[in-house]
Amino acid sequence: MLYQYFLRRFLLTIPTFLGATIVVFFIVQLAPGGPLEQRIMQLQQAAATEGGGGDVFGTTEIPPEAIEELKRFYGFDKPIYLRYLIWLGVYPRETDYQYLRPGKPKPVGEGVRLMVVKENGQYKLVNADDPSKPVEGWYIGKERERFGETVVEIYRKEFSGILTGNFGKSFVYQEPVLNLIKERIRISLQFGLIALILSYVICTYLGIQKALEHGTPFDLVTSILVFIGYSIPGWALGAVMLILFGGGSFWDVFPLGGFQSPDYESLSFFEKIWDRAYHAILPTLSYTISSFATLTVLMKNSLLENLSQDYIRTAFAKGLSEKRVIWLHALRNSVIPIAANIGFIIGVFVTGSYFIELVFNIDGFGKLSFEAILTRDYPIVFSFAVIAVLIKLFGAIFSDMVLAMVDPRIRFQ
To answer: I need a surface site. Which of 106, 174, 183, 279 has the fewest CB within 10 A?
Structure first.
């Protein structure tokens, strides 16, 4: 049954998702030059510059206590497999760290003062104001030597990861990653969906015309143009178009990047629509250029193959009009290959293009993730991996659904 097939597909996304995220997580975490190393290097250079000391490379040593704090902040104080489970949200995350000196009360918020005391060689956490009152929500950690004194770590813990809707906090922006994604992904969606619709509409029509005029000068010229466009990367075409048509160039026709004018908020409703459309022309062309050859040639070849089938000759023999045979009978079967790829193409357009957004200085999701990779902003990198994997998985399922709707011969068992 159809619903059983798609139910199995949905269930199979779970191990596939876990496998893909494990690979990405472990590769990124084990790669050298991570945020911890970068931060330590920045602190060493800053200390050497301010103090005028350091070694021949202009660096100085960082206290071990400070390095421990940095490891905790970036999540490197635990084994890598625990980091993955914490990131997923299936293992509790330690939060709200405090350091207490044994026997010294300390406020920990909400009008509560806590104190650690040692009984029978073990540390115990008590309420400093009312020792008979149980302490809830706080746990005792390790005993540490911190800046020349013995302290005991206490902390809270909670289940907080991507499965609970918490994508973490950006190391660079110091904001929740989910807020950054919501801000940026709508911009990438704007360009991606427009490019997707234009690609399918134009390429489908162009492929049909090329099939109907196969071997003519029109077919030859359009094939040359299509494959020239296919050989040019979208970001390279965007850079060339900015040089030729961007602000300050010889033909000052379009703005020099961005997705809206600086005074966008002061514009009227229709002026805002025109402003966005005006800024979207060059980026949209860059988005769509690479898919033109694939979709156009796929449409043309599929239609040519169907026009040579027996059922088309039979339809002509019955006296059906050429328009009815082509646009009703042949075209329906010809769009099947295109429909089979729609889910994967949607994924490419939705997640945005890193380089195109960089070239046009568009603060989209692609640019955000690209910059996160360069700065080792792991929460954003992992969030992008999650979204990309989910789009690919559900895009494949969506392609099967579209294929089943287009082709009635498909029977999923």
So the answer is: 174
